[in-house]
Description:
- 48% of the residues lie in helices and 9% in strands.
- The chain is of the alpha/beta class.
- α1 runs parallel beside α3 (40-54) and α4 (58-71) runs antiparallel to α5.
Amino acid sequence: MEALRSEDPAVRNEAAYVLGAHGDGRHIAAIGALTEDPNTVVARTALAALTRISEGDSELQAAALPHLMRALRHPDATVRQSAAIELGNFLECEGVDWSPLEAALWDESGWVKLAVAGALVQLGLPPSDSELERLFRTYAGGTGSRWLIPVLPALHDPAQRDWLLPLLACADARTRDHAEHATRRLDAIEAGSPPSWQTPELEKELRYGAVNRRARNELRKLPWHPVERRELLEAAREARLVIFGEMHSEGGPLREAQIELLRAFVGEQPEGVAVGFEPSVKHAQQLVLDVAEELGVPCISLETNWEAGWMPVGSSAERDDQAAEAIGDWLATPGHRLFVVRGESHVTPGGYLVSQLETEPLIVLSMQAEIALPLGLADDDLEMLGRTWRLGDSGRIYACGLKGLRLESPSSVLRAWLSRPAAR
């Protein structure tokens, strides 16, 4: 907590990040004070930390909300933009006066206006038709085109289709894809469908997001039990399906932990065992695939048509549908076992992918140890490398503490500050 008041902005920034990741509602006020920090990086980190701490909890969101509202008046436009983006996630709050956010539609910065419009649509408070037209006429077709994607659900009149023409011609595939969905929705409305109608593909993506949000919130409620690594290795030896969540870094402790677990999983009987990998990041996972080859274990891609299909438009639900099908196909043969390495956002226990699997997996998380470990279970310097936790009491969810990932936490700056005698 004292680090949040350090004269060094790098220390304040790291402290806000760590408390946002590992703290709880007791830290909201202290973090909230940094949303007015003159250092814009610190202020934006504090805003994200408040969202992370309070996600899915109406009381915590109510406590964090005033700090984000106040940040809409920050002198720096990037901080105001971040505040608007984060406010769009405050779906649990009721009885809120959103007029300060609505007033920000007239901010001097176009990036702030676009972020505010997207947030209001997420909150179910879409701007008026005249304000929507102003945004589309001004920003569609330019560098702000992609920022209009969150605003598209607010379109409800078939006459608004011509606003989409610049987006349909946009060079960005994801922007074009969303504009095409919006066009199809307006066509359906003209044919008699209700304004809430969505294309089946987009409906699936929305369901994907909702299911995973609920699953993440439930995961945060689980108790963390420190255990010896051998408990996890033994669980892997007995499992039929192991899914190891990751960020896509090459080498380092992540790959070492995956390889250690893979060797335990294969044991002395490689027959019927395979490794499932993510083709778009095969280069990052190659060390694990090389060990699989050494062990005589085949490697199977969990996604098809990824370069020309889902990748340009970012269809996460379609990706997980394909992965679930590939996992099911392999395990349909009696005696087959599978070791999967996959991005952690896709493998949340109870999430979209996992809920489709007929075989209950042993799930190993890596990034959760970096971003969700309760503060009281960490050492004074928050060193997590090499530590292992069992989450909950099912015996099917574990987390490995790994360093060297993109969201490494905390940095040497905060470690050095904490190690000073004056900080003890």
